[in-house]
Design goal:
Layout lengths: L4 E2 L18 H8 L3 E5 L2 E4 L1 H20 L3 E2 L5 E3 L1 H6 L1 H4 L6 E3 L5 E4 L4 H11 L8 E10 L14 E11 L2 H22 L3 E5 L10 E7 L5 E5 L6 E3 L13 H6 L4 E4 L6 H11 L14 E9 L5 E9 L6 H8 L3 E4 L2 H6 L22 E4 L8 E5 L5 E7 L8 E2 L19 E15 L1 H5 L3 E3 L5 E3 L1 E8 H12 L16 E5 L4 H16 L4 E4 L6 H11 L3 E5 L7 E6 L5 E5 L3 H10 L8
């Protein structure tokens, strides 16, 4: 029989005011309701009620992983350097992992993710195709040295994840494992009780091919994603692949005047260039120049994991900006920053504000790699920098007058842009990444030499999948998605208790009856929060009940004299009086949709 949680003795203190260091509504409520407590930037302690919700999330995840044949294990958080050195991630992670040395000077790290450890475990224990397929998982604490931890549990330095890995001999087997995990994730997020979307995703530092994210739809989410209502296409903005624009027909190119350099004084920005173009060099067809007619050339500096640097130039239509996250995904594992004055000084051929394709490219004067947005079509004509202050070149045609070293998917995606599948316009929304599934393929198996004998007795490299769920993040995401103005509103699947019984007033008979009701409910197997505090006003108790967010609230108070108690639904706010003798049955009906167990 579950033991009731008595507020008179529970390790809990609720707050009336929002904590100063909390930004998001759900985060504020988690702290105010005594679910979590900040220990350091990006590091939180789980208090008794918060730990109960966390364990509920773990239970849901564990049940669905077990249902697809996953086997649970647990690796240490303190890990050796060597496996990560073998896969290159000791360097690739750069400053984003916690590194340390033991007293002998041996390098170690706090695990940010565990592909290497899973791979080595299977390598040590299995050697035949007969032992595969295999799915292993763990629910464990991870560590990443976030530069700017924020949003409470959503972006921390210490967090809890479920990470699972599938091991198969064939690509077909990997496809099947991926599909099983995908269906399991749908069941997990259906049960967690928030609106989510599945989107195509970028694999990032994890590597791999097929990749999808499960995003909790939320205006406070860090991830931007796109959807096409007509086709159902959905993708993280970093993963949107803009199709290459079709080449301009030869007749149009032939009729385009030869490129010509014109004076455009004081026009280092796209806006001033458009103004100068219309004032000094109007179009022959009478249409005004717009930003979309210009080719913007943006130069950034890449820093690779080994510390080496490299400039990169990006050409894109002047009415678009470089999207920081899309560029980050394209250049990973390198990082990037805009060119600064010292960088321009090192490349004097770059005329700041007037940079053009004439000096860009690995085979040209600057030696800077030059990549174009795919919307820049072969044969298209542009107004762009002439590599001289106060001058731009008009009618510069791609393929006729300049070339590039390749393309890059780094331009911003906008509301109304055509969907990559051609089905209709895109809409933009924000979300919180809750799960990510990858087809890793053989990247880690090859790096760590994970091979098994196939049915012909030949050694073959195992292919892998990686599948993560943000367990602690799920608590925060649900809090953000389901709270109201009064407090937290937990879905029943995740709530720290089934029912919150409130005894009000000073009449001993009220407390005695509430004690009996709590005992009966616990006897039926329900988890009960019992506000038995004797010298706390009814108003404070009601506010705490709403703040804590247990789905069903039972108030035992003045109505007892009339033989009734009050039953309240926390989500809807609906209240109703029920007869004392029917209270247990009514609560059970609310919680389970069932009557009391006979004999109890």
């Amino acid at each position: 029989m579950p033991r009731p949680l008595r507020l008179s003795t529970l390790f809990l203190r609720t707050l009336r005011e929002d904590p100063a260091d909390a930004e998001l509504p759900g985060h504020k409520l988690l702290v105010r309701a005594g679910y979590v407590r900040r220990a350091a930037p990006g590091v939180y302690s789980w208090l008794p009620l918060g730990l109960r919700v966390l364990r509920q999330v773990e239970r849901v995840v564990r049940e669905e992983m077990d249902a697809i044949g996953g086997q649970e294990l647990s690796f240490p958080a303190l890990l050796p350097r060597e496996p990560y050195e073998a896969t290159g991630r000791w360097t690739e992670y750069g400053p984003n992992i916690f590194r340390l040395q033991d007293r002998k000077g041996v390098d170690m790290l706090l695990g940010p993710t565990h592909e290497e450890m899973f791979t080595l475990a299977v390598k040590d224990m299995f050697s035949s195709y007969k032992e595969l397929p295999l799915t292993l998982y763990q629910i464990q604490t991870k560590y990443r040295d976030e530069a700017r931890p924020r949003a409470g549990l959503l972006r921390g330095r210490e967090f809890i994840m479920k990470d699972s890995y599938s091991f198969d001999v064939s690509d077909e087997g990997l496809d099947e494992a991926y599909a099983r995990h995908r269906e399991a994730y749908i069941r997990i997020f259906d049960r967690l009780g928030f609106d989510y979307v599945i989107v195509y995703a970028d694999s990032g530092a994890m590597g791999g091919s097929a990749s999808e994210e499960f995003l909790a739809v939320s205006p406070i989410g860090e991830d931007t994603f796109v959807r096409c209502e007509e086709s159902g296409y959905a993708a993280n903005v970093e993963a949107v692949v803009v199709p290459q624009a079709p080449a301009v027909d030869e007749a149009t190119v032939a009729s385009t005047p030869a490129a010509h350099v014109e004076d455009t004084p004081d026009s280092p920005t796209i806006a001033t260039l458009v103004d100068q173009g219309n004032a000094l060099h109007p179009r022959a067809d009478g249409r005004p120049w717009t930003a979309a007619d210009t080719l913007k050339n943006v130069v950034v500096l890449l820093t690779h994991p080994d510390g080496s640097t490299e400039p990169l130039a990006i050409g894109l239509p002047g009415d678009r900006e470089v999207d920081a996250k899309r560029l980050e995904a394209q250049v990973a594992p390198a990082t990037w920053r805009p060119f600064e004055e010292a960088d321009f000084a090192a490349y004097p051929m770059l005329a700041k504000g007037y940079i053009g394709p004439g000096v860009l490219g690995e085979e040209r004067a600057s030696g800077i790699r030059y990549l174009l947005d795919p919307s820049v079509a072969e044969g298209s004509a542009w107004v762009t920098g002439a590599d001289e202050h106060g001058k731009h070149v008009f009618d510069l045609v791609l393929g006729r007058d300049f070339t590039a070293d390749g393309t890059i998917q780094a331009a911003e995606i906008r509301e109304g842009d055509p969907s990559p599948d051609g089905a209709g316009p895109l809409t933009l929304a924000r979300g919180i990444e809750m799960g990510h599934i990858f087809q890793l393929g053989r990247k880690y198996a090859e790096a760590l030499d994970l091979k098994v004998l196939d049915e012909n007795g030949k050694l073959v490299t195992v292919t892998m999948g990686s599948y993560g769920v943000g367990v602690s993040r799920a608590v925060a995401a649900v809090a953000e998605a389901t709270h109201d103005d009064l407090g937290l509103v937990w879905p029943r699947e995740l709530a720290p208790a089934d029912v919150h019984v409130v005894a009000t007033g000073k009449d001993p008979a009220v407390f005695d009856h509430a004690e009996g009701l709590v005992a009966e409910l616990a006897g039926q197997g329900l988890e009960v929060v019992f506000d038995d505090r004797p010298k706390v006003s009814p108003g404070v108790k009601f506010k705490d009940a709403e703040l804590l967010g247990v789905p069903t609230i039972v108030v035992v108070g003045k109505g007892l004299a009339d033989g009734v108690v009050e039953l309240k639904d926390r989500r809807s706010g609906e209240r109703r009086d029920v007869r004392v003798e029917a209270a247990v049955a009514e609560v059970l009906s609310e919680v389970r949709g069932s009557a009391p167990t006979p004999g109890d």
